[in-house]
Amino acid sequence: GDRDVEVRTLVKDVQDTVLSARSFGEHLADQAQVVLGVDAKGGFGSMTCIPCEPGYACAEGTLWRPRLTRTPCPPGSASPDGMACVGCAAGEYQPSAAQSSCEACDAGSYCLARSSEPINCAPGSFPGASGLSACAACAAGEFQPLSSATAGEACGGGSDCTAGSTSPGAGGKG
After folding, report:
1. Sign of the dihedral through C-alpha 79, 85, 90, 96
2. How far apart are CA 97 and CA 171, in angstroms?
């Protein structure tokens, strides 16, 4: 009777306080590491884990406090599911922290595993496509004087270019 009314009044007061001071309620949820549900009868429901967001790592089966215990994935890695940070594969990179996926390496560059930025291909080489993990030397009969190029240029005019040439003529090595 009277005790039930007191409990329901207390629960209502707590709900009103949390709603009127949302930031304090979020702080309490952070500190408690749980979200408390109140059922339709005014009783407390079960505790619920807060899922970890993509781009962050949280140990499986643990509760986490938002902004306090989750770990942002560092550049060069990503977390699509919020469970663990996974290094970008060769041919991919991620320049920012707390991301859910890696990006294909840009044309004219290559990316090693766990790259946080693309690496320009050196003169005399090019990747030929995006998403590669290494550059290839220009073929015999081609040259490339620029870094980050996407294709070799034909030597032409009777010039002699060897594989990996950076300029036409006289072997093409410079």
Report:
1. positive
2. 45
